[in-house]
Amino acid sequence: MAKKPAPPPLTIWAVSDGRAGIEAQAVGLAEAVARQRKAKVVVKRIGWTGRVGRLPWWLNLFPRRWLTPESEFAAPWPDLVVAAGRATLPLSIRLRRWTGGKTYVVQIQDPRAPAQLFDLVVPPNHDRLKGDNILSIIGAPHRVTAKKLADEYRRFAAAIDPLPHPRAAVLIGGRSRAFDLTPERASAMAQEIQLALEQEGGSLLMTFSRRTPPQARALLTARLKHLPGIIRAGEGDHPYVAFHAGADYVLVTEDSANMATEAAGTGKPVFILKMDGQSLKFRLFHEELERHGAARPFGGAFHGWTYEPLAETDRAATEILKRMDAKRDAT
Fold first, then answer.
1. Mean pLDDT of the chain
2. Angle at 127 between CA 119 and CA 281, to 5 degrees
3. Predicted confidence band at 195 (pLDDT cuts at 50, 70, 90)?
4. Residue 145 and residue 95: Cα distance in Å, rounded?
5. 174 and 289 co-located in one domain
């Protein structure tokens, strides 16, 4: 029997508006596809001229006319587009028409547009979307892999290796629609972390988001800087992934699905830090992580457990290739 020829290499565009958290989702899923099939991943950052970017997708009738020159969104078209964020919608919903259906279009998150406008929508389970072309996952796609953890740790090993165990990576988010980090909450958070680390004789690996309120950031830094460890001040290379790799525990504020999903991909105990505010969607998300065995609320003390690292990005990539192949074979 003749051996079935290998599929040709793919060209994949990872499309977003360039914001770090959004781009990481698109690139992470594109890279996961490329790990399973030979492919070239091209990162595209979409920008709009004037106020066009504020329009709803359905009012942006001729989107390529209003793109900034740096966007470079034109033929030759790729085999697969993985798009994330509101800014990409005017393009991704029209791409199948522009390419005669030859480009497979995947939209991450809830597009707040009819799902049939895309080949596949990949939202988080907590958005509670249903449909034949909807593949829900726990949390968000991301770029953290075993290889990336090892590679990034090597870059920062000289700084992290001497630190005593247990090491706690503390990932601080900030203000969002649903949550805030007031000075009062930051103070209570600092005390909880300090007492837990002092009791264990451990060390701290802490970093902040761009959304962290300056007052909360300053307060946490002042209260915890006496502990052994590293508090990233914001300059130079970012040890974010290295902190995951070097930690025994990962503490994540409750405002970020990205950070919690990335942490759950390590297989290490993940503790969720309480903020001001509340959100049904995030409560459902954290309950999912708890059912998977990855995360628990932080109660002021460390304890270990094991679970299978969350691998939803790879699962989504496998399903994308399966559906792409089925579509190709049907034409």
1. 94
2. 160
3. very high
4. 30
5. yes
Both 133 and 246 in one domain: the answer is no
- pLDDT digit string, tens, across residues 167-190: 999 999 999 999 999 999 999 999
The arrangement of strands across the sheet holding 203-208 comes to: 229-231, 203-208, 167-172, 249-253, 270-273, 295-297
Q: Residue 8 gets which letter from DSSP?
A: P
How many domains are contained in the chain?
Answer: 2
And the tokens for 323?
Answer: 């559906």
Q: Are 48 and 66 in contact (CB under 8 A)?
A: yes
Q: To which residue do tokens 């802490």 refer? A: 206
Confidence check: pLDDT of 5 > 80: no
This prediction has a pTM of 0.92
Residue with tokens 């601080």: 172
**In b/e form, how buried is each residue of 84-105, taking b as 16+ CB within 10 angstroms?**
bbbbbbbbbbbbbeebeeebbb
For the chain, strand residue ranges (E) read 10-16, 39-45, 80-84, 104-108, 120-122, 167-172, 179-180, 203-208, 229-231, 249-253, 270-273, 276-277, 295-297
CA distance 198 to 196: 6
Q: Is residue 305 part of a domain?
A: no
pLDDT per position as a tens digit, 52-105 = 888 888 888 889 899 998 898 999 999 999 999 999 999 999 999 999 999 999
H/E run at residue 144: none
The residue count for the chain: 331
The enclosing domain of 60 has a CATH number of 3.40.50.2000
Q: Tell me, what amino acid is at 297?
A: P
* DSSP helix, strand, coil percent of the chain (3-state; round to 5): 40, 20, 40
Beta bridge partners of 82: 14, 106
> Is residue 327 classed exposed, middle or buried when 0-12, 13-18 and 19+ CB atoms within 10 A define those classes?
middle
